[in-house]
Design brief:
Largest sheet of chain B: 5 strands, mixed
Oligomer: heterodimer
Radius of gyration of chain B: 12 Å
Radius of gyration of chain A: 15 Å
Strand content of chain B: 25-35%
Number of strands of chain A: 5
Helix content of chain B: 25-40%
Shape of chain B: globular
Structural class of chain B: alpha/beta
Largest interface: A-B, 25 and 20 residues
Largest sheet of chain A: 5 strands, antiparallel
Strand order of the largest sheet of chain B: 1-2-3-4-5
Structural class of chain A: alpha+beta
């Protein structure tokens, strides 16, 4: 498993995005899919700072964990801001809620866990199916 | 990559060139330019985006901020956006609110 830990600050966003791009090099998805994953991680990390106080709580860090399987790439963003499940965010008219929507709609699957004091935002991009693969498998 | 914001005022247009990445951390640099220039009441805001490689929702909010700060009648032109920036504009519905072109004047 690959991992990166950085100070929880807006100045870390670019490094988070670079790390995401680096771990996607063998994913087999197009550049737009990778960009949307970068954007998803960026938006949730930004919210953790701006609304969750992740830069003032616990160890004040972001950690990105990466799991790769033959089927998918999973990126987990951990922060110590206030508990917040983006899936249950209230619906606001634009521009409210844009970041959460971009995040949730930008990946193939999104999940959230709260463990201890940590928010764990889980982003999944599927790998392309090999030609001739059984769609039901 | 940090964001570089350069601007000039010409022909009643506020022309801003963006290079780098526009996220929640770098958007204040653009906001500062918009605030400073709003007093000159430009009729158009022209954003040259060929060098802009990333735009988060914070960047889209800057487009709304420009409209609110300068006035509802101001037209916003987004020039030569890369595919990624265009994708953010599309997915937030902002593509309908701006004029996208390869060059200015188009």
């Amino acid at each position: 498993m690959q991992a990166l830990t950085l100070p929880a600050s807006l100045e870390s966003l670019a490094a988070l995005r670079r790390f995401v791009a680096d771990v996607c090099t063998d994913l087999g998805r197009d550049s737009l899919a990778v960009y949307r994953l970068q954007l998803a991680v960026d938006e949730i990390a930004s919210n953790a700072i701006i609304y969750g106080g992740a830069d003032r709580r616990g160890p004040c860090t972001f950690t990105l964990l990466v799991e790769k399987t033959p089927e998918a790439l999973t990126v987990i963003l951990e922060d110590y801001g206030g508990p917040f499940d983006p899936r249950t965010a209230p619906q606001h008219p634009p521009p409210g809620g844009w970041g959460v929507r971009l995040a949730l709609e930008g990946v193939d699957r999104f999940d959230y866990q709260h463990q201890g004091e940590r928010n764990r935002n889980i982003f999944v991009l599927n790998r392309p199916r090999p030609p001739g693969a059984d769609p039901g498998s | 990559m940090p964001l570089t914001v350069t601007h000039e005022f010409a022909d009643q247009a506020l022309k801003i060139t963006l290079d780098g990445e526009l996220d929640a951390g770098t958007a204040p640099a653009l906001q500062a330019v918009l605030e400073k220039a709003a007093g000159q009441r430009p009729q158009r805001v022209v954003l040259y985006c060929a060098g802009l490689t990333f735009m988060a929702s914070a960047g889209v909010r800057m487009l709304i901020f420009a409209r609110q700060k300068i006035g509802g009648g101001v037209r916003i032109h987004v020039i030569a956006p890369q595919q990624q920036v265009l994708d953010t504009l599309k997915r937030t519905g902002m593509l309908q609110a701006v004029t996208v072109a390869d060059s200015y004047p188009g």
